[in-house]
Each structure stands twice: as C-alpha cells, then as structure tokens.
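Escalation from tier 1.

The customer reports that the assembly of two entities below gives different structure tokens on two consecutive runs. Tier 1 could not reproduce it. I'm attaching the input and our single run for tier 2 to review.
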Amino acid sequence: MAILAKKKSAAAAKRSASKVKSITPVKSKTSSQSPVKRHAKLKPESIRSQSKKSNKVRSTAVVKRRTMAKILSDLIDPEIEISNRKFTVSTTPSTPRIDFEDLGELPEAYGTKKLFISARDPYWLFAYWDLSWQQFHEYAAKAHDSKIFLKIFEENGNEVLQSQISDHVRNYYYHAQKPNLTFFAELGFYRHGDQHFEVISRSGTTTAPRDNFSPNTFARFATIPFEWSFRALLELIKSLLSENEELAEALARLQDHGHPFPFKANILKGEWTQEQEQALITYLGEEDMMQTIRVGSHEVTEWLRRRLLGDTTSGFVPGLLSSESLSSWSSPAGGYGQREFWMNVNAELIIYGSTDPAAKLRISGKDIDIRKDGTFTYHWSFPDGIFHIPVEATSPDNVEKRGVLLSFLRTTARDGEVTNHPQDPKYVEPLGRLE
Amino acid sequence: MTKGYVSIVLHAHLPFVRHPEHEEFLEEDWLYEAITETYVPLVQMMDGMLTDGVDFRLTMSITPPLANMLLDPLLQDRYVRYVNKLLELSWKEIERTKHDPSFHKLAWFYHKRLLGIRHVFQDQYNRNLITAFKKFQDVGNLEIITCGATHGFLPLMQDYPEAVRAQIMIARDHYTQCFGRPPRGIWLPECAYFPGLEKVLQEAEIRYFLTDTHGVLFADPRPRYGVFAPIFTRSGPAAFGRDTESSKQVWSSIEGYPGDPVYRDFYKDIGFDLDYDYIRPYILPTGERKFTGLKYYKITGKTDHKQPYDPDVALEHAAMHAGNFMHNREKQVEHLQGVMGAPPIIIAPYDAELYGHWWYEGPEFLNYFIRKSVFDQSTYKLTTPADYLKQFDTHQVATPSASSWGAKGYWEVWLDGPNAWIYPHLHVAAQRMTEAACMYPNAYGQMERALKQLARELLLAQSSDWAFLMKTGTAPHYAAKRTKDHILRFTKLFEQIKYNRIDEAFLSNLEWRDNIFPDINWRYYL
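Tier 1 run:
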C-alpha cells in the first residue's frame, strides 16, 4: 500500500472528534438535530423490518438490491454484456444510523495464559503473555519470592534469559543475536519449599531467520511442468514419497534416479564453478547487498515521501508525518485502549575529526571528503548491535598512514511501549557490524 | 537474440475502507485518489497498448480488499460523485486562471484528463475496473495474481494454521469469482514468507510467490543463481526474489527518477493553497482542507519558489528515464547471462500506487518502458513469472529464508512498540473463530450468516495495513480504531454465537458495515 498521507490540523482533528462523540444511536425518528437526520429515509433493512411499514419497504429493497454475489456471478457470466450491468447503490440499504458504534474497550488481558514467542528478525525475539492482573498475583503469591519470571531457551534447553516481569508489562523484546537458531520460552515462578521452577506457560518454538548465505551449496534440481497440477503430481508419486518428504523434494530425488515420468524431466548436468559463484557474488556486491536488503520497499517509499517533503516548502508539510494526521473521526483523547502518553527514542552516530586537508580519509573503507579546513564528519544511524569502525588517513604524499579503530555497542531494553523515533533514511547503519 | 527476461510486477493494494455510516469519509479518498491517479491511468496505458498492437507482459496483484472495493456499488457511486466534483472544480479553475497562461494551460490539462478518467471509469467500464483488468488478462498480456484475503501478516499467524489457510483459500475463491479462473501466483502480504507456508500454497494450487531479495538469496541450500532464477520450495510452489538493482534504478537517492525537478510536486495542492472560501465546497464537509489532486507546480528543487508544472516537459523526461531504465536492464541481462551461462530473470516489483499517485508521471514511464522493451531492443523479453515457469520448468529445490519487504527485511514494521499490542487480541480471535466453526460445522440460516460475519470481522482485523499505519504514524488513530472495532465486533458476535443467541439487529448492522467477501467460506477455519 502506498502511503496516502493526509494533513489535518490538531484543532481540526479535535473538531472531528467532537463530532464523533455527538453521534449516538438513533432513539427515535424525531431526533431532528442528530447528524443522522438527513439520511433518515435510508435505514438498514434489519431496522426497517422492525418498523411499522417494514413489509412494504423491505420488499422494495429486495427487488432493487443486487447482492455482491450476483454481481460477481454476472461478472464471470459471458452471457451478460458489460454494458447491460446495472449497479444499484448498495448491497444493503444505506443508512446513517450509528447503532452499535461504541462497543466498549478491549480487555487488558483475556487470561488464556498463552505465552507467545516469535523471532522478529535474525537478532531479536519478541514474547508476550496473556495473564490477567489477578492471575499474575495469584501466581506471584505461590512464589517463594513473590516474583514471576520469563525464561528463554535455545532449542537444546540452554537457558539464555531469565528476567523478572512485572504486573503492568505484558511483552518483552530480547536481543538474542543468534540468527538461524531455534528458541522457546517459559513463564513461571520459583515455588515455596523446594524452590523448583514451576511453569505457568510454555511457548511454541521460533527460529530466527538467517542473515546471510546458507553454507550448504548442494544444489538439487526438479522439473515441475506448469501444466501439471500439484494434485496430479502428488497422485502420480504418492506411493513413492518418503517420510516427511514433500513434492518437489521427491520429484528431484526420483528424477535424479531416472524414474520414468509422463513428461520430460530436464536433469541439469552442468557444473557450477567457483569462478561463477564468485562472479555472481561480486556482481551482487556483498557489502552493498547486505546494506540494501535492510532497506525494504516500505522504507524506500518512506524515503521518497521524505525526499519530496524536503524539496517542498508548503506550510502544511510538517504535520504530515506527525500523529496529528488524524482521520476525520479519530479521537485525540484516545479511547481505543491506547493512552496518549508516548515515548520515542533513537540514536545516531557521528564521527568527526580533522587532518591534513590534502590527505585521503577512509571510514569503514569508504572514502570521505575532507573540508578545506581539514575537518571531516560522517553520520550514521545507530541501531542495536556491535560495530567496529576503522578510521584511516593517508598522508598527501601517500607515505604515511594513521588510523584508529572505534568500537560501539548499542543495546536497547524497553520498559513499556517505547518506539524507535523516526530517522532520516539517508543515514544507514555503519558497515562493520559484528553480530 | 534473447539473453534474459524482465518481469515488472505491480502490487495494487489498499485496505478495505468503506464507511456507509458516513456520507463522506476522508480515508475513502485513498481509493478515489488511487483510481484517479493510478488504476485508471494503468487501464488507459494497457488499452493504448492493445490498440497499438503492443504485445506486452505485465504482472499485477489486485488484492482481495481492493477487488472488493472496486466491485462495491456504494464506493463506485461515491467515486463518480468524487470525480464529478473534481471536474466541477477544474472547470472553475479554467475560469479563475484565465489571465495566467501557465496555470490556465494546466487547468485545461486537468479538466481534460479528468473527463478522460471519468469516461474510462463510467462509460467504458461501467464503473467496474475489475472487468478492465480481467480483459487484459484474458487476452494474455496481463497476469493478475492474488494476495492474502485481507493482506494479513502471515508469519505472525503461524500459531493458528487455520487462520493462515483461510487467508489464502478465501483469497483464491474470491479471485476465481472475479476473474473466472483460479490464481496462478500470489503476492504474499508484505512479501512476508515463513518456511512451511508453501504447503498451504500447494493446496491452493498457487504456482509461485515473490519474496524480497534476501528471501531467495539466503535460502537453504544456497541458490546457485541468486535471485536471477526462481527456486522450487519443498512443496512445489516457486519463489522469485526481487532484484535490487532495478529497484534502486527507480528509487535510489542518487539516480532515482521520481525526484527529477521537472516532475510534478506532490504536496503543492490547491486544496491547501487557494483561498478558503473558494475551495470550501471541495474540501471536507467539516471544513478541513484536503488534497484535491489539482497541483500546479513542479518539484523544481530545494527552493521556496516553485515553478509551474509543464506536463509536456515532464513527459519528455519520463521517456528519457524509461530509455535509461531499458538500457540498464540490457546491460544487466547481458552481464548476468555471461556469468550464469543461462538466461537470467530480473524481477522488479513495486507498489502500484507509487506509479501515478506518488510519482505522477510513473504510468507514462511504465508505458514508455514497456513499448521500448517490445520494439527497441532484443536483449531481453518482458515476461510474467507464470510464462517463465511454463518455458523453464526445471529449477533448484530450496527453502527461502523467512523475510519480508518491510524496513530491515523482517517483521519489525508490523511488530514493534506502536503495534505489538494488537497480537494478543488477534490471536485470541483466531482461536475463537476455529472454536466457533467447530461448534456449528453444519450451520445454516442465521447461524451461518453469523459465522460468515465472524470470519469477516477477524479477517478485517488481521489486515497488516493497520499495524503498518500505526508504526509509520501516518494514520495511527484510524488504524488503531479499525483494529479495535473489528475485534470488539468479533468478540460480541462470538459471545452471541457461543450461546446461540444471535441479535439480528446487530448481525445485520455488521453485514451492512463490513460487507467484504459476500460468499465467504467460513469452513476453512474448521
């Protein structure tokens, strides 16, 4: 989805909100000042059916109405000319009646005791738990120290985290920094007496995604003719499937062994050389690629938006990215289970210094411009991670080199909902990340 | 001689925004703006190519929420009202600008363009753009692919396989209703893949999907040809990886095209710039200003003094950029073919709405690029992933890496401080949906209607757009309200189903508000 941003002033948003609050379910036909009055002739069918004139009105509505299903069936019916299709106003009678508009608030918790864990990326795990306040304190009362803990384990049972949780926090971000590893979590407490860890809930497993090429270079090929359905192919080989083997794997194995098929299987015999492999990686530009893949299309879209924004001087622009760009009926007072209080934090990294203006300067292997007065600056975003950044200057006569190796660590532990403050996308993270 | 293939893939998606309870609703403009600036221009582009005998190949996802909205009579009506109002404004603009030649020319430009758009929408396709896209597919030039039923973020549903399956199968069914045949490919919502998803795609007979670059590049075993050939997943569906070079060519901060100073400035819009009393009838009923789509300035540069937009000059630059893009693809294909010893495929996926809505000249760029590719070079052929798989049916078997096309490449956009609160609610609802379906597997009549509506509310709550909007801060309150509303509607209806006490007025009200997927098969949750 493209970002279809809207600009509204905070004052206008408040006006909208107050309008929303004025909208209440229609209690009688005579609510003349209600925003719904101008549409009073258009009530939903369900409501009409309860009115005195319901039968007559409803039958008219049914005759006039074309359901979406009918429209769809017409659409694929070649007998019906497109030009003959007529669409009426709505699938059900249009109405401004705002019944069932306010259904209350979402619960703080459902009390299912579920513990959920998911790798959010190769380095971070996210966990939440669904314990009500009452459940939390009931379990805490059973603990010898009145404490509840979240534990995270590697798949082999190796414990990597034990963290006490409080009754007002319901999720946790853990910087595991272990791509391609599988984890699970437990919620529990150390009970009275034997102080054994009693598990309240255990999560499923989650595997952190890979952040680099697979070391496994064994290539196996399969022929899957496009005109054959998967169902037909499965039928063809179902008696030959090994345990836990999937369709493409079985086809690759069978085709490799010369099993006859009613279609031509093209076994690739050509060798793939080290030179070809290296040439492709060079083409992709390994370092460049590692940077690029961290920039998704959404980020590119955001970048474009900001770039255009930076190029304009329209006075309304600054509000565009702010949370003031409210919808026409959003309530700035919240009321969605969300409080107005917020916190955004982020970090950037600036390396600066000075040297001979005619020297050559490289930071993280990248040539950096030196100003006429010999000073230089380089600016990055600074996400979580460990970064080693070499800074190296070569004298103008190419005889002498001097340098430093700067190392930085950033980790983030959140207490409550704290968001990454938006950053200018032109600042990328430094090369030299050591995960 | 053909040395490789290039496949342009456009992802056309908007969340389901339809508010019959309000006469006008700001967020519905997302659809109207996209129809005006992206979807109709794309239809005009493809119709033009058919007329001129250009045998093009283009792939486009039309997501189920978007298809539902394009088929919705209420939104179709409201769009006609929207475009008529714009035409009225453009007519007034012709009068207002008569003493200013540059702006007067532009006022006429917009007026004629809007007349053309209304003609395409209302007269040529009878308000139903799905028939237009279906036509291009039926003649073999356009490959339409599906998406998740409501663009739900599938990796964070993994614990609820019925919910994942329903997102895919309901999308497949709706696609079949719309286009008269089942889909062959899918744009996974947010290109978000997790290992194991291919099993559901196999069941749906979906032959291919797309991932971001690292989804294929970091596959296991390592793909021999990088992202320049598809891989077959264990279950059979093929994965195509995004080419970064062609993405950068379009959007790079150094060489990207849309920032050219002669292109139209997105933000200078008369809805904000003109006298309030004059513009008042064309902004929101509440009196708040909004974008009208009539914009008179070019990007110009970093200056306070924007220059008038000249569509003819912008068109020349779009042609020039298309030529540059084609030339770079030729060089890329030639080089890769030399390295690989086999014809590469370059997959270039983009948000469709970036073409036209954000980058006003984008559809013209595409038009020129496709025509030039067909007539002005022979190094590569335009193709679709389906055509490519028909032609080349032997590929490496590997499992893609979990990945998405969001910032940083994984789940962070949809799972972070501003939006993590939604998942306990979505997960409980997914579990309850299956619970309710299992309670009444043979439901009919009112109970079946209730179960259908229950599924609609769950699906609408699952839309990844809400989490995205909360994260980016674009419309966070609306997004939060939509999530909350659908979960609350779901919960209230679930309680009624559980105790077999359906409130007819409530059910009818929900059917009237949230009418997506009229024929939804709720039994996928069993």
